[in-house]
Write a structure and sequence with these properties.
The structure holds two protein chains of two kinds. Chain A has 16 helices and 19 strands. Chain A is α/β, with parallel strands linked by helices. Chain A has a five-stranded parallel beta sheet with strand order 5-4-3-6-7, with helices on both faces. The model of chain A has no long low-confidence stretch (mean pLDDT 97). Chain B has a seven-stranded mixed beta sheet. The mean pLDDT of chain B is 95. The chains are: A alpha/beta, B alpha/beta. At the A-B interface, helix 2, helix 3, helix 5, helix 10 and helix 11 of A face helix 4, helix 6, helix 7, helix 8 and helix 9 of B.
Chain lengths: 467, 208
């Protein structure tokens, strides 16, 4: 009998092109997602070396980081953003790569449209010049973010030179309490292992609480693997995965679906497979989580207090806590529920899917956004937007006083016009609370869509279960 | 890529943990379609105030570190996004070696693609080097022999560091990764042919 293998081992083995003399391996890349910010220099590199794109048909491009979420028909007013988006379109045309432009209703955040189009499938290797490529791991695809040099390498060779990572299992046992979501799970994980806890690892999420999540929820968990330091997160494909992908534009055709599904199910980690490290978390202990500081590991439960640096023994940590609290404009020991917000952002590749908008709309329905709050909803893709409008969610949001925007990355990284002003405080469903992330001097609190909606209604951080 | 040569320079001490890529190069500078010219915006929000005036207390604005080629910093350096603009801005500024107790994976990898040497050392060792850097001592970084050395009060200190052999060679030789992989294009074609028979749906449902 052969040694039991993990999901990661199996995908790795199935993509091994060759092993180099120096211990590295050439790994085949099945699908490549491309966006405007991290690709222009890669295409330029190809041109300089007179190289072509090996597999244009395995590559899908869209513009998401830089594009406006209002007045789309006026085009992009920022000349630099426009040049970057135009450059991507020209590069795609030149190399025969499909490009979903701003006017295409399938356009959206790369990590939302990959799964939505069935471009993302179990057992694949998927890369993109974006750290949140880990999202696609929810399907049991080995997916990770790469830099521009590697984007160029994939364009030219459809492979990457890699060293195999270590494998960590994060097991979330038990049942999630009511009102607690995938976002709360992943924030809890990052708090537990820290932002460097997953460095050097590929994480596989297992356990009943993970299995019980929808595909959307699984994507939220895998999405933030990178905030725990891991380049990739994985969840075994199951019946939910197979059901989700059925009939999507790039999913396997009907006559091949059965054999594809059989292969996908065979990828699950074998019983007794060894991990380099295992972390256990009890789902029933998790309550809605929010961040208080400027690192995604600065997490507390919503019924908690702003932590006090005086309680921290490690000097370096203490110093960074003091700096974070000063930046965030927070006083130690303040109840989180007393912290007022100015802005609310619901969207991003972490939480810009239909299920996220449904959760937020349940809180928003028949309630009003607090007078002093400006709240925006940015669907993750044109199709998410369309679906939400078919369900009447846009009306609920607009009646509550939320702004209903066009799809894109928007205020998650504030490359377009959607950004915080200095000292503005935001309840955000995105993934990073770094200094300046949502605009210079802006203060970000990460949380789930229901929690962000509750913050919008109450005008301060709130427990969505109490609304 | 240029070959990595021996470095002799003082080092910039930046004793901060979890320095993220948004801090290294904020998003407003990611709109470029070039790799060059980003050095002036390195650590922008720590380095300049809201009116673009240099913040005197920030280490990069101190004259003695003006020509430093080495940065000594805290753990988990380069966490956050995959933007290669981070190493591009570091290199464009003139820094060719970063010393820390740990690095985020994507950033670490991106350094080698750009001829930057990231060195991982124990935290206690990094703290010692930080002190030496604060005293503006001159360091020698010898990649060939995997050694950092500096003189403090006439005593020569030497610190060895570990590095993956493939990564070392790539820096020393300034290798073209893509060229090396393309030399094995037959292996890639063979793999594709095999994959076409084992998982044919990957080839029949292509993007059109």
């Amino acid at each position: 009998m052969s040694t039991p293998k993990t999901l990661y081992d199996k995908i790795w083995n199935d993509h091994l092109v060759s092993e180099n003399e120096d211990g590295t391996s050439i790994i085949y890349i099945d699908r490549h997602l491309v966006h405007e910010v991290t690709s222009p220099q890669a295409f330029e590199g190809l041109k300089i070396a007179n190289r072509s794109v090996r597999k244009p048909n395995f590559t899908l491009a869209t513009a998401d980081h830089n594009i406006p979420t209002t007045n789309r028909d006026e085009g992009i007013s920022d000349p630099e953003s426009k040049l970057q988006v135009d450059t991507l379109e020209e590069n795609c045309k030149e190399h025969g790569i499909t490009f979903l432009s701003m006017s295409d209703k399938r356009q959206g955040i790369v990590h939302i449209i990959g799964p939505e189009q069935g471009f993302t499938q179990p057992g694949m290797t998927i890369v993109c010049g974006d750290s949140h490529t880990s999202t696609h791991g929810a399907f049991g695809a080995l997916a990770w973010g790469i830099g521009t040099s590697e984007v160029e390498h994939v364009l030219a060779t459809q492979t990457l030179v890699q060293t195999k990572a270590k494998n960590m299992q994060i097991n979330i046992q038990g049942e999630l309490p009511l009102g607690v979501t995938a976002k709360d799970i992943v924030l809890k994980i990052i708090q537990t292992i820290g932002t460097a806890g997953g460095t050097g690892y590929v994480i596989e999420y297992t356990g009943d609480a993970i299995k019980s999540l929808t595909m959307e929820g699984r994507m939220t968990v895998c999405n933030m693997s990178i905030e725990a330091g891991a380049r990739a997160g994985l969840i075994s494909p199951d019946e939910k995965t197979i059901e989700y992908l059925k009939g999507r534009p790039f999913s396997p055709a009907e006559n091949e679906y059965q054999s594809a599904s059989d292969y996908w199910l065979s990828l699950a980690s074998d019983e007794g497979a060894a991990y380099d490290k295992t972390v256990n978390i009890d789902a029933s202990d998790i309550i809605p989580q929010v961040t208080w500081g400027t690192s995604p590991e600065d997490v507390v439960s919503i019924d908690g207090l702003v932590p006090n640096p005086e309680d921290e023994r490690d000097e370096t940590k203490k110093k960074s806590m003091i700096r974070a609290l000063e930046y965030m404009g927070l006083v130690p020991n303040t109840p989180l529920k007393e912290v007022k917000v100015d802005k609310v952002f619901i969207g991003s590749c972490t939480n810009g899917r239909i299920e996220d908008l449904r959760a937020a709309s349940k809180i928003a329905k028949d309630r009003k956004v607090a007078d002093h709050v400006n709240a925006i909803i940015v669907p993750g893709s044109g199709l998410v937007k369309q679906q939400a409008e078919e369900e009447g969610l846009d009306k609920i949001f607009i009646e509550s006083g939320f702004e209903w925007r066009e799809p894109g990355c928007s205020m998650c990284l504030a490359m377009n016009a959607d950004k915080l002003k200095p000292q503005e405080r935001c309840a955000s469903t995105s993934n990073r609370n770094f200094e300046g992330r949502q605009g210079r001097g802006g203060r970000t609190h990460l949380m789930s869509p229901a929690m962000a909606a509750a913050a919008a209604i109450n005008g301060k951080l709130s427990d969505c279960r109490e609304i | 890529m240029e070959k990595f040569k021996k470095i002799e320079s003082n080092a910039i001490p930046l004793p901060m943990v979890n320095v993220d890529t948004d801090m290294i190069i904020p998003k407003q500078f990611l709109k470029t379609i070039k790799r060059t010219g980003l050095g002036k915006n390195l650590f922008y929000e720590l380095r300049y105030d809201e009116k673009d005036a240099p913040i005197d207390s920030f280490v990069l604005n101190q004259d003695k570190y003006k020509d430093s080629q080495i940065l000594i910093t805290g753990k988990n350096f380069g966490c956050g996004s995959s933007r290669e603009h981070a190493p591009w801005s570091i290199l464009d500024y003139g820094i060719k070696c970063i010393i820390a107790s740990s690095f985020a994976d994507i950033f670490y990898n991106n350094c080698f693609k750009n001829g930057i040497l990231p060195i991982k050392l124990d935290e206690s060792e990094v703290t010692k080097l930080q002190k030496a850097a604060e005293n503006s001592l001159s360091f020698t970084i010898d990649l060939e022999n995997q050694k950092i050395s500096y003189f403090d009060k006439n005593i020569n200190h030497e610190v060895s560091f570990e590095l993956d052999k493939a990564k070392k060679t790539s820096l020393l030789e300034g290798l073209d990764d893509i060229g090396l992989t393309l030399a094995k294009v037959n292996h890639i074609s063979d793999f594709e042919n095999k994959q076409k028979s084992t998982t044919p749906w990957l080839y029949s449902q292509q993007i059109k």
